Amino acid sequence: MTDSIVSEHAGGVALLTVDAPGSRNALTLALSSQLADAVAAAERDESVHVVVVTGTPPAFCAGADLSALGAADEAGLRAIYEGFLSVARCTLPTIAAVGGAAVGAGLNLALAADVRLAGPRAKFVARFLELGLHPGGGMTWMTQRLAGPQQAAAMTLFGQPLDAEAAVRAGLALRVVDGGHDDLLAAARELAAPAVAAPREALLATKRSLRATASLAAHADAVDVEIEPQLTSLASPEFAERLAAMRARIRSGP
């Protein structure tokens, strides 16, 4: 079978699977391009509220394809990055369902998501220096931001991998999901459900605000960022409908 990004849009979720089991889902230039296209298609599809990224078991993603990496110049490296950077830039909420090893560029793909769920066999591994490579794709920034400087140093400088439980303790994963790959995907859909139920425009605006306020130092500045989109949502028909439904439930009693 041809390696590909398998994209399924159903129930408000775009499930994007890196399907290259023969290489443990290593990212080639073609797969990175397909992943970027699949993310863009999910953003265009107004029925999609959440993007879930995973890999065909047993791996999540073994990194960048080494033959492509070895021949890459700056343009080639940036082309390899494009797949996981499209997840990082995605305007929709994103979940990485990490059922196996996330290595190198695969670690970047996992870290690019808003939230990570880890299966019991998940492993988060930098491995750049082991190969004689400097980290790339913003891995040092993402790891320090999510796990702090000491854990980032342990992973990048000293090659310390994190298993699923350690990733949760370090803040790289939200929780461990017991069971197999289907259980992991079911947990991702369950996590996605409130976002699927939310008005899409309010959801997109909330993610924009999360990004905007993340670097702010003052509470008052965050208030200013949030007030305009909150006013817009107050004037929306979706809010009016939901408020009326809530009032009706309150009047009807338990």
Task: List strands and helices in order, with pairings.
Elements: E1 4-10, E2 13-19, H1 29-44, E3 50-55, H2 66-70, H3 74-89, E4 94-98, E5 101-103, H4 105-112, E6 115-118, E7 123-125, H5 139-147, H6 149-156, E8 162-163, H7 164-170, E9 175-176, H8 181-197, H9 200-213, H10 219-234, H11 237-252
Parallel strand pairs: 2-3, 3-4, 4-6, 5-7, 6-9
Antiparallel strand pairs: 1-2, 7-8
Helix pairs in contact: 1-3, 3-4, 4-5, 5-6, 9-10
Describe the model:
This protein has 254 residues and is an alpha/beta fold. It has helices at residues 29-44, 66-70, 74-89, 105-112, 139-147, 149-156, 164-170, 181-197, 200-213, 219-234, 237-252; strands at 4-10, 13-19, 50-55, 94-98, 101-103, 115-118, 123-125, 162-163, 175-176. Strands 1-2-3-4-6-9 form a 6-stranded mixed beta sheet, with helices on both faces. A 3-stranded mixed beta sheet has the order 5-7-8. A hairpin with a 2-residue loop joins strand 1 and strand 2.
Features:
alpha/beta, about 250 residues, six-stranded mixed sheet, three-stranded mixed sheet, 11 helices, about 15% strand, single chain
Distance between the termini: 55 Å
Order of helices and strands: EEHEHHEEHEEHHEHEHHHH
Averaged pLDDT, please?
Answer: 96
Approximately how much beta-strand content do the residues carry? 15-25%
Q: Major β-sheet, in short?
A: 6 strands, mixed
| Helix percentage range | 40-55%
The side-by-side strand order for the widest beta sheet comes to 1-2-3-4-6-9
